Every structure is written in structure tokens, then in C-alpha cells.
Fold:
Amino acid sequence: MKKRIGLVLSVLFAAGTLLSACGQAGNNAGGGNQKDTFSVAMVTDVGGIDDKSFNQSAWEGLQKFGKDNGLEKGRGGYDYLQSSSDADYATNLNKLVRSDFDLIFGIGYLMGDAVKEVAKQNPKKHFAIVDTVVDEPNVASITFKEHEGSFLVGVVAGLMTKTNKIGFVGGMEIPLIEKFESGFRAGVKAVNPKATVEVQYAGAFDQADKGKAIASSMYASGIDIIYHAAGATGNGVFSEAKDLKKKDPNREIWVIGVDKDQAPEGEVKVGGKTYNVTLTSMVKRVDVAVYDTAKRAKEGDFPGGKTIEYGLPENGVGIAPTQDNIPENVLKTVDEWKQKIIKGEVKVPTNRKEYEQFAATIK
Amino acid sequence: MKSNRLQQFLIPLLAVLLGMIAGSIVMLASGYNPIAGFGALVYGAFGDTYYIGETIRQTTPYILTGLAVAFAFRTGLFNIGVEGQLIVGWLAAVWVGVSFDLPKIIHLPLALLAAALAGALWGLIPGVLKAYLKVHEVIITIMMNYIALHVTNAIIRSVLSDEGFKSKPVKESASLHSDFFDAITHHSTMHYGIFIAVAAAFVMWFLLERTTKGFELRAVGFNQHASQYAGMNVRANIILAMVISGAFAGVAGAMEGLGTFGNISTKAGFTGLGFDGIAVALIGGNNAFGILLSALLFGALKVGALEMPSSAGVPTELVDIIIALIIFFVASSYMIRWLLSRWQKGAE
Structure:
């Protein structure tokens, strides 16, 4: 019997040594042959790489950059790491630093602290953060004027609501999402002061079930258009709208998507006919911003310590190209407002206080 | 006797190996290289000092949540509320950490104490309800988790920040941050909390195995009626067990609040540390020393798993399955014990 246990033990040890040796060998190989090319990677927040919005858009930007520059996915090329909890942010960023990527993106407002800390510890590395500002010389901050884009979809909602009841579903109640909320409400107010906007926060960016529950109660209360700024939570809003559409194809209910053109999320087939519950989307070109920043870094023009803001003129935010559900005259009004914002005739509020001031100017 | 000891040591190892074999089959079936996959796992957990630091950091709260669950188990209670007790402990530690200006020698222990007390309070409520009204602790503790989560979020928003989503960082005098560990582990987030966690394991062992009160607590766990007949106060012991269990969980929260994060932010959902603590306790055989080892296993799996997608290309979802398989086999070590005994009988 002892012999057998001895045998098992030695097999175990052998396996252990073998495995750890492999790990190290793999790593060394990865670390050795990459110095000649530019490599770039990103860390997602908890929404995950396939959130159909924010993180996915960033990854599409990186993939495009990789393809255009002949890079391969993985170490020494372009890659991503996914965070399953906020404890993973710093670990994942550090992992990428240690894998020797030339530029590392932190995707999302919530990752600000982690990026700041890791950037301080690695002053020679280049980082970029999307959606918030990190004041370090080796970090490029990318922000968007989400309020301006949200204003435009607010105009659409204000003009197209039949019940004069509109909903807004936010992810977490943080200043970033307040920009979406305030801009959207201002847009509605500007074209349809009679309409009310009900605002609810799900408290998370990754819980589609909560999004579905909120959407269900909103639609039941007579709201006919919901704008969501809730990442993967918003997928629940879509699934509720589609369920309702399946039950009653004639009911006019809409979702306004966010970050990406979310028209594909809204498609629903009822009795051989295809409907789409996506009215339009407020696109935020995270992909463009990620691409641009990676390109600049590759060309030796890394905007470290600077904040780059993408707004309407830069086409960093705006209304999605899919506009099939919107009539011509509404689109015309949207364009008029867009020009007004670009010219600076209208100042779109970025938070609730500014919204109150804005609302006071409209009767 | 000697071979029994050896077996106790061998069975968990064998279980891990079986889990890895099952994981390999999954990886092979999905077209990934299991050797590269597990190589990445091991490398990501112990590959160099940075990863070792991260693994120890992750192990720290697991030890404490494992102890919390195990302590309740040993006294016949099932504390599912470790998660909630951890969150209130985290909040209390950070609250004390940001609100006072005290010398470190007072401030840090005070913050830890606050965390323990908050966790204890969160354990006291289900304890009292169980002892006096016979309400099952599982139901109460599950509900207490939600109360903890949402109350904590509300307090972070309204009291600890100005309608924001996170508190200020705790003062240096209350922080567990270690410049020494930072330096030797290349900026990992490892902190001094590991000493507290190991000390807590010793405290639990001493309390349960070497004191009269511990004997009483265990006796109540074995048989309430017999204990009562023997003149023990069953109600008081149930309450005490939940309070101590909650205190361990609260200190686990302090590890996150004073060490890993240095602040607290609003949470969309549970951290999972408390629920994983149940598995840590079970795999560790509800024994203080066993928990140290099983917490290390969990910490290593958790941190090492992050490496699998990047260097072996295994998708995150598959990594979750593989980790779950390993835990499954470790948890079902009874099956292995049975097989082993059959095998031995056959050989003799």
C-alpha cells in the first residue's frame, strides 16, 4: 500500500513541476520576441467584452487597429483582459504591464483609481483611460460629451412620444451617467416641455434582469420610449421591449440604445414580419477614440497627461446611422439642434443642477 | 495511524489532480491546450513575486470568511450571512479609517475592532432570532445580506461621499498598506492583513479546542438537547457563536477596506467572498489549519485564472468552468476517500 501512495505522490510532483515549467516557458517565449512591434491592450470593467455597448466598442476599435497594423491577437500584438470584479482592475492592469504592452487602456469610469495607481508605479509605461480624467503625465484621458449626444436623442424622444411619458434607465448613479440623464432630459424639454421623463437607476452595469424589471414597470405605466445608459443592464430593456412587441406587434414602444448603434439588439420577428424596437441610438465612438489614441501612441505622439474630449463636431458622439424608424421632419429638427450646439448657441447641461437652470429658461 | 495522516494530506491533492484532469478534458474538447492552460494558471498564481503577492492578498479575506463559516458550522449553525457581515465590516472599518486622526497604534486596531463589532452585530440579530424565536438562521442571514448591501450603498452615497460612488481613501494611520510588501512583490496589493488572518485562524483553533467556552459551543453544535441537559445555556451559546462568526467576517471586510482597496465603493452586487467562504470552510474541513490551506487554494485559483485568457487563450467562461470543476472534485473528496478504501481493500 505504501508503494502505491509513493507512486501517486511522485506522479503528483512530476505533474506539478511539468506544469509550472510550462507556464514559465510559455511566458518567456511571449516576452522575448515582441520588442520590434507596437503592442496595445485593454482591461474591461465588469460589463465584460461582449456587453454589446461600451467595452465591446472599445475592443472593436482595438481589433481594427490591430488589423490595420498587421498585429496578431495576444502578447506582442493586441489583447484584452476581462475583469470579473473591481478587485481585478489593478491586477489586470499590472498583468498587462508585466506582459510588456506599449499602451494599456482602462475602459471605464470605475477604473480611474486603479489606472492612477498603476500608472504612478510604472512611470515609463503609457496608459489611457476612457470616460474619466486621470492626472498623471503618462496617462491620456479620453472623455466624451455624452450630454450633447443624449440631447439629440432627447429631441427625437420628445418629438416622437405619443403618451408624453418617457423613461430613462441609468446604470450606476455616478457623475458620468448624470451627463447622459441631464442631456437627455434637456433635449426632451427643449422640444416638448409637456413630456415627463421618469428616471431610474439600476445600480449596476451588468444586470440585465434589473434592466428588464425597470423597463417592465415603465412600459406598464404608459411610457412609450426608454433611453438606457446602462451598458449590459440595458440589454434587459431591449428584451422587455421585444417581449411586449411579440405579444402585441401594433403597440408602439421604443428603446433608444446607447454607446453603439444598437439596432441589431432591437430586431424582433412576429408572425413572419420583422419589427425593430430600437428607435435610434446615442453612439459614443469609443472605438474611434481608442483607435486614434493607439495610432498616436504608435507614431510617437502619445498625448500623455492630456485630456482629449470627443463631442459633436468631432463625431465622437451623436445619433446612430440607423434611423429607419424616425420620420424625415424629426431628423431635420435634430440636425437643427445639432448645429445650434456646435455653434455654441445652446449649452447642454451636464448635471442635474445645470439641467434645472436649463429647464427654467424654457416655458 | 500514520497512513491515516498521510491519507488526510493526500486526498485533497488527489482531488485537485482529478479536478485538473476533468478540466483538461473540457479544454481538449473545446480545442485548447490543457498544459498551456494549467501552466498559465500556475504561473498566474505563483509565477513570480508579483503573482505570489496577489495570491496572498486574495487568500487573506478567504481565510477570514472561511473561519467565519467554519466557526458557525462547528457550533451547529449555517451562517450564509458572512457576505453581509463582511460588507458591514468593510464599511465600519473605512468609516473609522476616514473619520479620525489618531496615531497608527490606536487608529488601526480601532478600525479593525469597529469592523469586528459591525460584523458581530450583523451576526447577533440572526443569532437572537434563532435562539429565542427558533427562526432558521439561513433565511435571516440571507435577508441580512441584502439589507447590508443596500444600507451600505446608501451610507456611502450620503454620508461617506457627496452623492458619489466611493468614499475617500482611509487615512495612512488606519491603512494596512505595506511599503515592504509593495517593494518585494513589484507593486502587488498584498498588505499586512495576512498576519491578522493567520492570527485569527490561531484564535479560532484556541477558542474552540482549548477553552471551556469552546467546548460548550461545540457541544451545543453536536447536540442541543444533551447540552441543555448538561446544564449549558443553549440560547446564549447560539447567540455567541453567531456573534463570533460575524466578527470574523467583519474583519474580513476590514482586509478589503483597509488593505486591498483602501476605501469602499458602492456595490452593484455581492463580493462573493462570503459565499466562497462556505466552500473554503467545507474544503478545509472546518478546521483552522485546513482553512488556511483551502483559502490559499481558492486565492491561487482566483488570481491564477486571470492569466489563462491572456497567455493560453482560454476564454473566461471556460476558465470559470474549469475552476468550478477543481472545486467540485475537492469538495467531493468523500468520494475519493471511498474509492481509495476500496482500492486498498482490493490490494490487501
About this structure: Residues 15-35 of chain A have pLDDT under 50 and may be disordered. The first strand of chain A starts at residue 40 and ends at 43. Chain A touches chain B through 54 residues (CB under 8 Å). Chain A has two domains: 38-143+285-308, 145-282+326-359.
